[in-house]
Write the structure tokens for this entry.
Amino acid sequence: MDQPSPTPRLPPGRRADYRLFRSFETRWHDNDVYGHMNNAIHDTLFDSVANAFLIEPGLLDIGRGERIGLVVESGCRYHAEIAFPDAVAAGLRVGRIGRSAVTYEIGLFAGVSDVAAAEGFFVHVTVDRRTRPPAPLPEADRLKLERIVR
Amino acid sequence: MDQPSPTPRLPPGRRADYRLFRSFETRWHDNDVYGHMNNAIHDTLFDSVANAFLIEPGLLDIGRGERIGLVVESGCRYHAEIAFPDAVAAGLRVGRIGRSAVTYEIGLFAGVSDVAAAEGFFVHVTVDRRTRPPAPLPEADRLKLERIVR
Amino acid sequence: MDQPSPTPRLPPGRRADYRLFRSFETRWHDNDVYGHMNNAIHDTLFDSVANAFLIEPGLLDIGRGERIGLVVESGCRYHAEIAFPDAVAAGLRVGRIGRSAVTYEIGLFAGVSDVAAAEGFFVHVTVDRRTRPPAPLPEADRLKLERIVR
Amino acid sequence: MDQPSPTPRLPPGRRADYRLFRSFETRWHDNDVYGHMNNAIHDTLFDSVANAFLIEPGLLDIGRGERIGLVVESGCRYHAEIAFPDAVAAGLRVGRIGRSAVTYEIGLFAGVSDVAAAEGFFVHVTVDRRTRPPAPLPEADRLKLERIVR
């Protein structure tokens, strides 16, 4: 891994830093033995808020679409613990939009807090479903994604 | 998130780049709808190989230890798909060792491949189990961790 | 396993058959390769609705309580598929209450459907947290549980 | 649920009661807050051992097969705790084989123990991948399954 050193700590984001929100209930087994949400669950919520956004306006057809988005990089900074039975709001915005790659950025907010408990990102590369070379992002999709750019 | 842009792509690591290995069988539901291991599962394997290393030499007592390691940052680059029923070897090394923070770096290798399918890291900060301020890493632990520094 | 044969099929339950409800958003990786919620996720929701009920009235103190509930048996019948991004309502009722064992019964309802997509149960045995022999259910807990008996 | 009462307790099974085995390493987040493998993980291992068996002799083509197996019922009895970092051997046998339904029975054995820590089953109904009515089990598949009937 070429970037093992901790990222310099910036202050946690706020809800106003994100464009769209989706709420999730935590689940009993989101907690690990330390009594807080295990760090892998954060990724699961990142995927869920972004894919829900993609499915609803028709950008993604999970079962039959010709193009799918593969995750090529992801990361997360954990500011505070989240724990079952907290509710979590996941805020979404789009960072960089490249020719075939899109960076989604997500903040997780526990309960009614305005300060992110965790912030992360993942990079989707659009590929052909079968043969999987990178495919250019269609222009219509780009326009929709631009509406939630930070 | 202060670092949304994709990390410049370096070539994937090799088994010789890692110090310790633990094998995992994939599971049916590691695969998501795209027929490959979902990206959140990688984090789960990262946690597992590092914590198994910590538990076995007595660095970590899950149930009763005074100090635990909280994950404050994590990241992963995905080079190639892994899919059930592949076996996965998780290679571990320690990157940076700070006063209370340790960076673990992990490579995942599918089947007999010598080229990493994914590489990631996470940063553990040692904290007091109850009150949770950062605690200095004990000297004996530091010596053990230094044996697997990259 | 002493009961391998399929249970005779009864008609799926309705919302009115359950006493308390909790809503859950599905997550991207609840779906498996067949594009529907993997059957292990159902158990996760069963645990979540029952434990949320137990935590809120103070029947369960996850971190420090002297008594915890261990699952000794569970089961589920799957009537219809649930899939991300469906919302799911989990309905809870208590079946049998024994000296130390409680049977929780749960129905999962996708979207606004009144017909259960899945129905299951699990049996909790109350045990002492440390030594883990069965412990009698305290009388105050029994009274609270009786309020949601089917 | 039509069968909420605990099944009468039979003695736990032994390795000799099962026909085929597959080993799994537990993972850090298999453990829940009680420090043992959460009960939903057992189902995940049941699916994994059965599907690995089906994939290897060609009974199941996850990505393209015309027929898939949907789980219509599952159950588990938990005899003893399993905890990360235990290794687990999953033993498989086939119970009942019907016209389109197959009952798989699984025992989980922690470490080198000969006594099952948990035993469960699930019922697969063979369906057409697209239209999903029950489809008869092909004769060749039936013959292969009969080799591991208990």
Summary: Residues 1-6 of chain A have pLDDT under 50 and may be disordered.
